[in-house]
Amino acid sequence: QVQLVESGGGLVPPGGSLRLSCEASGTIPGFNTWGWYRQVSGHARELVATISSDGTLNSAASVKGRFAISRDDAENSVSLQLDRLKPEDTAVYYCNVYVPNTRRNYWGQGTQVTVSS
Questions:
Q1: Beta partners for 91?
Q2: 68-71: long-range contacts (C-beta < 8 A, 24 or more apart)?
Q3: Could you give the CA distance from residue 104 to residue 83 in angstroms, rounded to a whole number?
Q4: Upper half-sphere CA count for residue 72 (Cβ side, 13 Å)
Q5: Which residues are 33's β-sheet partners?
Q6: What is the gyration radius of the CA atoms in the chain, in angstroms?
Q7: Cα–chain-centroid distance for residue 99?
Q8: In terms of Cα–Cα distance, which of 23, 56, 34, 42 is closest to 91?
Q9: Contact 22, 5 (CB under 8 A)
Q10: Which of 1, 6, 27, 56 might form a disulfide with 52, Cβ 3.0–4.6 angstroms?
Q11: Which residues lie below 8 Å from residue 64, measured CB to CB, with a gap of 6+?
Q12: Exposure pattern of 89-117 as b/e (b: 16+ CB <10 Å)?
């Protein structure tokens, strides 16, 4: 069973930066896609950015040029660098891994990011 643990959330002023990390316990087999999603209370969870085993990147238009996702397969982890943060980036951020071969989706517990002065 794969478990994901996020870290790095917190309170930051507008224009500031944070780095979120997510580490998986257990082996993630084969081709997979790591991703970060976020959710504001009362709203649907939305995609922030994903990165696949072949390096394919995808990100929301609202974060392009400000957020960067990266993965470390040796460490079984993914990171999200958040720069030039805005108040509207405030949300709970969730780490995710999707394995197409098994159609399994794994989620972390979420980490709060609050952008406020």
A1: 113
A2: 69/34, 69/35, 69/36, 71/34
A3: 31
A4: 10
A5: 52, 98
A6: 14
A7: 16
A8: 42
A9: yes
A10: 56
A11: none
A12: bbbbbbbbbbbeeeeeebbbebbebebee
CA distance 3 to 107: 8
Task: Provide the token pair at 113.
Answer: 């990011």
Q: How far apart are CA 4 and CA 32, in angstroms?
A: 14
Which residues are CB-neighbours of 5 under 8 A, at least 6 positions away? 22, 23, 25, 108, 109
